[in-house]
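Job type: complex structure
Entries:
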Amino acid sequence: MKSVLTVEKLSYERNNRVLFKQLTFQLFPKQILHIVGENGSGKTTLLQLLTGLRTPLSGKVMWNGIAIEKNNINFTDNLLYVNHRLGMKSALSPTENLYLCLARRNLIHKQSKREAIHAIHQILDQLDLKEYANTLLTQLSSGQQRRLSLAKLLLIKADCWILDEPFTSLDSAGIAFLSSLMEKQSARGGVIVFSSHQAMYSFSLEIKKFFLDVKS
Amino acid sequence: MIIFFLKFLTNLRSELLTIFRYYHEWIYPLLFLILAIILFPLSISADPILLKKISAGIYWVVVLFLVLLMLDQLFRNDWKEGDLEQLILLPNELSIVLFIKLLVFCLVICMSLFTVTPILSLSLFIPFIALKTLYLTILLGTPTLIFLGGIARALTLGLPQSGLLIILIIIPFYIPVLIFASSAVALASLGLSANGPLAWLGVLMILSMSLAPLVINKILRLGIAFA
């Protein structure tokens, strides 16, 4: 089996402090990688390097064997990145936001607008956000906003999920829901990289773990 | 083609909704412009001959201040909410969405200036024959100011206190627009043809509108904002 996401000799420095050096790993389909580290250990930076938002000092990240800068379109079509930011416009309602998201990814043409809106409503229903479908995001609580950011994972099919601390400010039902989502994604053959500062989450699957230390 | 058109419309609609739901962000700078222009003749003197000479300059300096005040808001919410990050991760979207964002910003400023200008021109004694030229300078001048300002905004996006830096970066690039625009209005109020400066404003507008989104795209992708 070929590895999907490959990291080769990745090094990165921040404020003259080496965050990691010669980092190398491979992820095969169906694998989940959990990055554990304290605050300030460089979890977010590593995930940003994996998405291509930051460029590494040396080394490269490869998707299907090709560096992500060269494979940009194929990689980003298959990438979903969720971080502590909302990733949506707070002046719009959940429905408007998700519709915009579909339009930007060219996913509207397959279905008419009404069908797209219908699919969005079904997803909001799954997330218990149906009554807020037309409320502006500024009026939602932070937990609800957090749950809404999971809607993208349901709405768009992508092979690579990069989730930055996805479990923070979710209630226990939300955590269970996200875990089941991740299991489904893994069963579908996708790869997931996610970070948190706790090492333990109850998964029925085996996950790779990877610890980042804070050392000067 | 249809997909592209649909995408363009969806993006345009959501940008317009965003800017109108956050109307307080552009209403206050606009009030500042109205007040500044009304207070000017009160504090100097309501002498029509004197004001006729300097009114075009005053008007355009205040418009420039308005744009500088508003530049700080450009992209700021998108950046805070992470919308911009998601856009950077979509390879073919960023330039076009940036263009739409800047265009909507221009539309809001132009439209609000268009509505208040007839009244303000009375208080500055800008002659009626120059009003058409004044409108043209707004139409051709403000897009240049905003699209160029977008570049400075993108450069300073990750910094906590970026307001002053934006002004320092962008003022030199605003000088030509200021000179051409105010000289066009001044020429027109003397009854002369203002086609020359207006043509230059048009050139600057076309160049900045077509090139700025591409430059901003590159700047955002460099990841300066993340460092």
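Summary: Chain A touches chain B through 32 residues (CB under 8 Å). Chain A has a mean pLDDT of 84.
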